[in-house]
Amino acid sequence: MPTPPLVELRDVTKRFGAGPVVLDRINLTAGEGDFVSLIGPSGCGKSTLLRLIAGLTPLTDGGVTVCHQTPDQAAAELAFVFQEPTLLPWLTVTHNVGVPLQLRGIGREQRLAISRRVLELVRLGDRGAAYPRQLSGGQKMRVSIARALSLSPKLLLLDEPFGALDEMTREHLNEELLAIREHQAWTAFFVTHSVAEAVFLSNRIVVMAAKPGRIHAEIAVPFAYPRTEATRLSREYLDLVAEVSRLLRSVEEASQPVHA
Question: Whose CA is closest to 75, among 194, 169, 155?
């Protein structure tokens, strides 16, 4: 018997109040270990889709299952990394990482042990006593990822976590994220505006169109893991980036209003 998908969206539709349809009949699945990137024009509902999977926004119509449960029932199985690190400035790095563990009632010693372990994973083991104001933008995002990983999630949802970082920092963090994935075998949904980032990270790319938000195409990424700088320099990688970029450009052009 085939393994049921870890995440399944069935005819998912979303509108806010009496406004226009934001997402229109989305059908999408992800199996264990998938890394799915969502790309598309601004306003196509990528972030809204992530929030529906997380149970942070109610559905208008359709169904979502996560780990064979509703998103609310599966809350303990998933973690969300937002665009901004949202660290508490009065807490050290170690204690910021431990916040969700504390909310789940995990004792102090165990929280500290887990926090230190995941900080080592994101290469911040020596920064546990620092405060957010003492960190660079890339380091703050590493802490945010460590905080999510402290929960040992089966599903990791990432909403443009590296969008505000410079290109070099972004590439390093892409490589680190995949290295962490080798230690923690989670499934990921990743929202990005960067085609190159989507191709580097994913085994599947979902291209969305706007007005209303819908799935336009899905592309399989054939490169084996682990991926490195050599992956970015390969002809196959560059060709796929160009192919996906052309597809995205055609979607963006189709969503532009026609002027008489």
Answer: 155
Q: What is the DSSP letter of 59?
A: -
Contact status, residue 205 vs residue 39, Cβ threshold 8 Å: yes
Count of C-beta atoms within a 10 Å radius of residue 184: 13
The reply to whether the predicted model has a pTM over 0.90 is yes
Could you tell me which residues come within 8 angstroms of residue 125 by beta carbon, excluding any fewer than 6 positions away? 116, 119
The residue among 227, 226, 217 whose CA lies nearest residue 196 is: 227
The CATH code belonging to domain 7-255 is 3.40.50.300
Domain extents in the chain: 7-255
For 167-225, how does the pLDDT look when each residue is reduced to its tens digit (9 = 90+)?
888 898 899 899 888 888 899 999 999 999 999 999 999 999 998 999 999 999 999 99
